[in-house]
Design brief:
The chain is an alpha/beta fold. The chain has two domains: about 5-60 and about 75-135, Rossmann fold, CATH 3.40.50; about 145-285 and about 315-340, Rossmann fold (3-Layer(aba) Sandwich). Helices cover about 45% and strands about 15% of the residues. It has helices spanning about 45-65, 85, 90-100, 115-120, 145-160, 180-190, 200-210, 220-225, 245-250, 265-275, 280-285, 285-295, 300-310, 310-325, 330-345; strands at about 10-15, 20-30, 35-40, 75-80, 105-110, 170-175, 195-200, 215, 230-235, 255, 275-280. β3 (about 35-40), α1 (about 45-65) and β4 (about 75-80) form a beta-alpha-beta unit. The longest helix has 21 residues, at about 45-65. The protein is globular, with a radius of gyration of 20 Å. The two termini are about 40 Å apart. Keywords: NAD, Oxidoreductase. Belongs to the Glu/Leu/Phe/Val dehydrogenases family. This is Glu/Leu/Phe/Val dehydrogenase dimerization domain-containing protein. It holds the Pfam family ELFV_dehydrog.
Length: about 350
Amino acid sequence: MDVLTSGHEQVVFCSDPRSGLRAIIAIHSTALGPALGGTRFYPYADEDAAVADVLRLSAAMSYKNSLAGLDLGGGKAVIIGDPRTDRTEALLRAYGRFVESLGGRYLTACDVGTSNADLDLVGRETRYAHGRSEAYGGCGDSSVLTAYGVFQGMRAAAQHCWGTPSLADRTVAVAGVGKVGSWLVDHLVQDGADVVVTDVDPGAVERVRTRHPQVRAAADTAALVRTPHDVYAPCALGGALDEETVAALTGRIICGGANNQLADPEAAERLRARGILYAPDYLVNAGGVIQVEDERHGFSFDRARAKASGIFDVALRVFALADAEGVSPAVAADRLAQERIDSVGRLATIRLPR
């Protein structure tokens, strides 16, 4: 997907010098409904880097929400700064006022660098902040169902490759054991997988190994990639599947929670050429947006979990289409997502009586 030609509907630059807020909100599409996407708080090198990231992320959200079967378009926001030093109540509330000014075209939630508590503050200035803490009637930590959805996608990949939807006795290499990665490890251990992990934060690895002593640790991502494995699960930041990594992988499946895993569009074809099944990231990590979207209807964890279980069936559809058409699963997923945007989105042109 080329973000420079992907037809974003609206890009808003937000500035409030008194609080230090510098933010960008990108609305890619509202064909299926309001544009839902999280707010990323990150110390970008410059504004150009922030713009490139928000355009790319918001376009991916359109496809993610479409493939998840949600009546939502795609959007994303980035706050430029270091959340460890720049996060203040004034800044977050100023950001909330910009979100409110869009009148519901953009619905925000958590992302890298923001938390449920942050969204509680943003929500004091806007009706369109979701993924709030349970104390404020929100859905709480969306990483719970993000990891669950990744696990369902991995089960589907196992079914497609090995004829059984189980990771028992398979070696799964998990790169990044923050919130999503650590929840994913829980599911994998329970399913009987042999798990190897790594993370830039040694404390995160130690917390996982304290909970599951049988989990092994690799020194770093480069070592993890070269460790014999059946499944590789990138669960940190994007761009993990670059040319060097793809060439070094030893497994049959890639399925992880990170966004924008493909370092370039050619990566998907390189994986296909090597016989490695790639489970598209925006398909399998959609459990989080499913959880957040359910908050709009009065949150029910059981209902949201049931919806996230559907990722298994959608993944099987994507793999079958990829095989039938001789394309990568990334291309097949894009086609299914765009098809729904085109077919369902056109219904907005049918005028209803007032």
